[in-house]
Amino acid sequence: MLISIAVDFRHANVATRERFHLSPERILRLHTTTLPANVRELVAIATCNRSEIYAWTGGHDPASTAAFDDAVEAIARVWMGNRAGAKALLGVAQRRAGLDVARRVLRIASGLESQVMGDGQILGQLRQSYREAADAGAAGSVLHRLFETALRAGKRVHAETALTAGRRSVGAEAAAVAHDRFGNLAHARLVVIGCGKTGQSVARQLVKLGARDVVCINRSPKRAQTLAAEVGGRPAPYEALHVEVAMADVAIAATGSHEPVVTAPALAVARANCGTSAYPVLLMDLSMPRNIDPALHGVPGITVADLDALHLPVLQAEEARKSSAPAAESIVDAELASFVEWVAVAAAREAIRPLAEALTEICRRELTFAAGDAVADHATDRIVAKLLARPMTKLRTAIAHGEALQAFHLTLDSLFAGPMPAPASDRSRPRGRRPSPRSH
User: Fold this and answer.
1) What is the pLDDT of residues 151-171, one digit of tens each?
2) H or E segment to which residue 304 belongs
3) Where are the alpha helices (DSSP H) in 97-196?
4) Which phi and psi (to 5°) does residue 387 adopt?
5) N or C: which end of the chain has fewer CB within 10 A?
6) Does the reported pTM lie above 0.70?
7) Which domains can be identified in the chain, with CATH numbers?
């Protein structure tokens, strides 16, 4: 059974998402901690707008409430590190099971679940999360298949539809908000804090919208220098961050810091020293956790816009892309059907495995006795495949209709699991020779 736990922008505000954000430490713990036996595979995803866990429990009955609850609670405890934190998390998290989980992953990869519809960065973030889980050994065959299908769906949506046309990232939308505020960015000083993918998107879009004075700041000076050279801006040392923000018209923060990098006391001192305390400044926070001190909300002259504040303009901007959504949905449906078919085949194969192994053992033994190893290996595979073709078809149909196979699997396991004993007559026969025909 596929299960998921999610805290995202549609159901939780930025402060709540911040509290339950999947930091690298939490992700590492989830990917490396030995979870209960009913949680066989796990992938953790963290972006600026969502923290989500996807897991495979090994069962095939989404209606099993007890198994679902046990798995969800176990994952939540590892996520938060303690029982109290897990209880708080489950009080706000969205929980899903079965086909809803698979559909959600494909929709996320396709940009249909992004704050900015068609967000061009989400596919890369999803790929990175999947690779980290795979490298840690947390993802197995089912989640491998699910995420490979999702990544393929995302690539198809990008290549075959216009869903990703135009501005399609939070960074680009933030630049648009800055442009709308000033009307003309040619005479505005803009500071970009954090020169990763989001910061790069911001800086490039600012220049496209007419900005000429872009200051790039990053903990790694080289990255700031590279981005500044690309956009015709100016790099500034990280130590001068508050002074640069104090002199700016707009400052946009997008770093991976776990705490605010623009703090209220330091900015107040810098604005006083620069003589800009009365000047208006727009601070835009695109980070999760937040990089701009929440204490700056309400300070005279300072406007703070976080991810939640960007939600309305983002919704307005995506209207132009909505006409492409049906085509993207069709791609998701087609890829989802292929994944469901794969799961049905895998589930049917697992259910019938004890019988298949028993038949294989008996056929190989008898044919080896009759015709030798070379003939036995080839003939065994053909005979077993033909014998199991009809049962496999019936099982796949049952799974497609939502029927559970646990009872069937247990029955076959009890009847056929383990080595099949050789008949007494076999044990008495010499190996590799045909019995002599009896005389009549």
Assistant:
1) 999 999 988 987 876 555 678
2) strand 302-305
3) 99-109, 122-135, 141-160, 170-182
4) -65, -35
5) C
6) no
7) 2-160 (3.30.460.30), 170-315 (3.40.50.720), 342-428 (no CATH)
